[in-house]
Write a structure and sequence with these properties.
This is LCP family protein. With about 425 residues, this protein is of the alpha+beta class. The chain has helices at about 35-40, 45, 85-125, 160-170, 240-250, 260-270, 300-310, 315-335, 340, 345-355, 365-375, 405-415; strands spanning about 130, 145-155, 180-185, 195-200, 205, 215, 225-230, 235, 255-260, 275, 285, 290, 295-300, 360, 380-385, 385-390, 390-395, 395-400, 400. Helix 6 (about 260-270) crosses helix 7 (about 300-310). It is elongated and about 155 Å long. About 30% of the residues are buried.
Amino acid sequence: MADRRHREGSDPTGEHDRPGVFRRKGAGGGDGADAFEKLYRGRESEQRVVGETRRMPAAGDVPPLRPERPQRRTHHAGREYDGTGRTRRRRQRTARKARNVTVVTLVVLLAAVLVLPTWFYLWSNARLQRVDALQDYEGRPERQDGDVYMIVGSDSRDGLDDDQIRELSTGRAEGRRTDTIMLLYIPDTDDAEPTIISVPRDSYVQLAIPGYAPNKINTAFADAVCGTDEEGEEVCGGPAPLVRTFEQASGVRVDHYVEIGMGGFVGLVDAVGGVELCPEEPMEDPKAGLDIEAGCQTMDGGTALGYVRTRATARADLDRIARQREFFSALVQEASAPGTLFNPFKSVPLVLEGTDMFVVDEGDRLRHLATMLLAMRGGTQTTAIPVGATPTLPDVGSVVQWDEALSQEMFTAMQEGEPIPDSAFQD
């Protein structure tokens, strides 16, 4: 059989001349080598002669093997591939678990930061006892700038057991009367300090109880004092008649009402670990269960109660209201101190005790008590409604008559939301 390499049309080298097969003709029609062949593939005629036996190169002529390159790793040097995907899936499951744990942790922290305080506030707010103290009536003073809190300390024994009654020397009494009447006035100016104003409970004013002539202001709070209005309904003493009596006598509108009994008083003081008070002289009063030395000292709830109740001093009730203002300022400073607010062993009992024993108006909320507390945290001034005389009247007894000019100066400033002028201050 004829050698196919020497068929017609081929040269002895075996390179075909047919156009477009292995090479093209040169531009001049000659046998020029294809440029592509020259660059990328050696010509067969340059490697060996047709028919020549191919020999293996000598050992020394063999080019050295190219060194193996290390396996290239992607993303990071610790990742390995086993070809099954198990490692990748295990890594993804681990990442998902870590992500889920992170999300759950954030949700729990968010609940602790937002939900729990909100729940505690709503729960504490619901514990407050409420009474309809701020009632509208014909001729009631208009709303003024600033805020006025009426703070009433009653002699109610609610919450005290027999042992506490004996220990505190409170005695037994039915109903309730006022031991303390104070106003917290917050002016409508940024640079003015709040003012605690004592209202002498023997203040001689016209009562807001039908059928009663002028009498001591604390009579308006006594639930045993009752009258009948024009519509035939019975009206007895209590928070609403007390507020109305003061508003009509002063022309100042009361915005918030806060009341606390003896049991709550003692509980609040003990919850903050006692308050520091500074009597100027030794005091002893068996009726109030009081026996203390002169000088600054920390008083517990029972001792502080006796301190603010006793009348065994030269000016009796006037000295007592001064001590009540002293005590109230000290209690507020202690209750709003960082060591109390940020100490759960003090702040939680304080909230529980306060919300269980405070009586507020139906429109008041826990935030109003917090506002009252914080308003006095930066410092307060203390005074009393200016007293003009202390006569003894038939069928009434010893009373306190307000100084007409100075008290009106005080009330006018409160009606306008302005600071109380120094000329109206009285010890």
